[in-house]
Amino acid sequence: MSKHHVTATVNGDVVEFLCETHRSLLDVLRDELNLTGTKEGCGTGDCGACSVTIDGRLTCSCLVLGVEVEGKAIETIEGMAAGAVLHPLQRKFLEHAALQCGICTPGILIAARSLLERNPDPTEEEVRYWLAGNLCRCTGYHKIVDAVLDAAREMRRQ
């Protein structure tokens, strides 16, 4: 199979990779770019574990072909912290114990950041609605929602 040369921006850095036309962006991120924070939960776009943003739009990376991201800006969980300084959402997830096994956590954090970029003062209902595409089998969501709301309050004060 032939490979295509793709250039994109991932977490602010220009990257180039060779990609077979059938490979998903999730596979490219994990296998070609060694960004393993994005997880595969279902492979069908139903669980949200593989959530990233592409040109600012929340997207399941398992549903996008790697060759489709030519010239696009992708943000993954690896780009969320500023070096050793965690994003407020990451800190609040730790403080609220809003994670357990960790498979869903990267996708939920990316989705929550996407929400707060659009709506810095969401209600609990809005947080639950926005995160509805992210499935978690371990926590029960209450601590996740509390962490997002707490992060939103902190981020509004900054």
Describe this structure in words.
It is a single chain. With 158 residues, the chain is α+β, with helices and mostly antiparallel strands. The protein has two domains: 77 residues, Beta-grasp domain (Ubiquitin-like (UB roll)); 70 residues, DNA polymerase, domain 1. It is built from five helices and five strands. The chain has a five-stranded mixed beta sheet with strand order 2-1-5-3-4, with helices on both faces. Helix 2 crosses helix 5. The model has no long low-confidence stretch (mean pLDDT 96).
Quick synopsis:
The protein has 158 residues and is an alpha+beta fold. It contains five helices and five strands, in the order ββαβββαααα.
Write the layout of secondary structure elements.
Elements: E1 3-10, E2 13-20, H1 25-32, E3 51-54, E4 57-60, E5 73-75, H2 88-95, H3 105-118, H4 124-130, H5 142-157
Parallel strand pairs: 1-5
Antiparallel strand pairs: 1-2, 3-4, 3-5
Helix pairs in contact: 2-5
